[in-house]
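assembly run, all chains below
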Amino acid sequence: MNKKALKTVFLDTVPVLTGYLFLGAGFGILLAEQTGKGVLWAFFMSVFMFAGSGQYLAVSLIANGTSLLSSAIAMFLVNARHIFYGISLLGTYKGAKAKPYMIFGLTDETYSLVTQNQPPEGMSKHKYCFLVTLLDHIYWITGCTLGNLAGHLIPINFEGVEFVLTALFVTMFVEQWLTHKNHLPAIIGVASTVLCLAIFGSEIFLIPSMVMIAVLLTVTRKTGRRRTDV
Amino acid sequence: MYDIALIAVTALVIAATRFIPFLIFGEKREIPPLITYLGQVLPFAIMGMLVVYCLKDVKFLSAPFGAPELIGCAIVALLHLWKRNSLLSIGVGTVAYMIMVQLIF
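ok done. output:
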């Protein structure tokens, strides 16, 4: 594998590196403050859960002594969006050697990168997806453990740095808008989520949003077909 | 023990959300056309969903009315429309947002 290709993959993941180091550190600090747990916990949670909002939620579940069943349900509600990622990567990940690991590590950010970016010359798509997943995982583990160990020592004010991930998604959104003529799916995505957020509130809006998106995309597909039939 | 059990259970739930589609539509099974179609158009809808998801806890009804987030997103989007350089759009937008929440709002 040549250095130039690796550098390209690394540059693609730089926004995630920034976001994960700080969001991970935020988790590590919160874990220490709210549950008194040390670096081994931060390490193993970041290795085996590898989910930003999931791990933040887990801290409050542990701190509140929430029952296992309630915890499992809450965790499902927060992470159900992953189901969509799998559906759109069924073809891309087919036959990949490291497929189980790539599925295990399918975060929002990894998903955005692998759906949006093409691998550098000479690298297969599977390898690109694997490397992005692995790099993102390493960034996340590093952020979580360092934050737990030394988060309270950082003297600089990094407030607002978590916006880097919002910025990543906005960039991907604009990029998709520019490269594809059919804007209906993008509009459906935004409109459904905004509507469901307004109706259901920020705790549980993701599942209704997903249902609405799936239904609207399915319905608009049929009308598109009829048009071509005529 | 409870803590370890909780982490194990929630880690399994998270992994399940990621594995479910692949378990249902395995390597060998034919993927139904509707699912293939959804797989093609979902990335566009999901990116919109994720942007809204990131802004879900912003309070638009009280000061500063989500101004740092909206201005931040506008900077990222406009800069990206202009230069189409992802790192530049993300970097400038994030720094601008940090300045806004730390010094202005």
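Chain B is about 75% helix and 0% strand.

The mean pLDDT of chain B is 92.

not gonna interpret more than that til we talk
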